[in-house]
Amino acid sequence: QIELVESGGGSVQAGGSLRLSCTVSQVGRNRYCLAWFRQAPGLEREWVADINSYGDAGVADSVKGRFTFAPANAGNTVYLQMNNLKVEDTAMYFCAAEAGAGCYTRNPLEYDYWGQGTQVTVSS
Q1: Under 8 Å CB-to-CB from 88, ≥6 apart: which residues?
Q2: Cβ atoms 60, 121 nearer than 8 A
Q3: Left, alpha or beta for 81 (phi > 0: left; psi -120 to 50: alpha)?
Q4: According to the model, what pLDDT value does residue 119 have?
């Protein structure tokens, strides 16, 4: 089992940037798929990005070209760099993990481990 803790959320104007971090308890010890989800009030939880144990990452079409999901250069942290933020990006962002060498699902119900979330608010 692992623990996940998100940080880096906040309020920003449209066009600005934020860097979200997910601190993972056992990076490099076990194989996990790590993912970012987001959820706005009244909407379904939406898959944003994932990265497998080999470092291969993918992002949703809605954020492609603006968001980058990658390991930090040191330590047990992965980050989501968010550039050119839009009002539509406003949501609670969650880090999640599922055991396995690769990422095979975008269904949040199949992820076993979750952080508590960090709020991102983008204003125009």
Answers
A1: 62, 122
A2: no
A3: beta
A4: 98
| pLDDT tens by residue, 38-94 | 999 999 999 999 998 888 899 999 999 999 998 765 567 889 999 999 999 999 999
**3-state DSSP of the chain:** CCCEEEECCEEEECCCCEEEEEEECCCCCCCEEEEEEEECCCCCCEEEEEECCCCCEEECCCCCCCEEEEECCCCCEEEEEECCCCHHHCEEEEEEEEECCCCCCCCHHHCCEECCCEEEEEEC
- Whether residue 124 is predicted with pLDDT greater than 90 in this model: the reply is yes
The pLDDT, as a whole number, for residue 32 is 87
Phi-psi region of 98 (alpha: psi -120 to 50; beta: other; left: phi over 0): beta
Kindly list the strands in the beta sheet with 4-7, ordered across the sheet, starting from the edge strand earlier in the chain. Answer: 4-7, 18-24, 77-82, 67-71
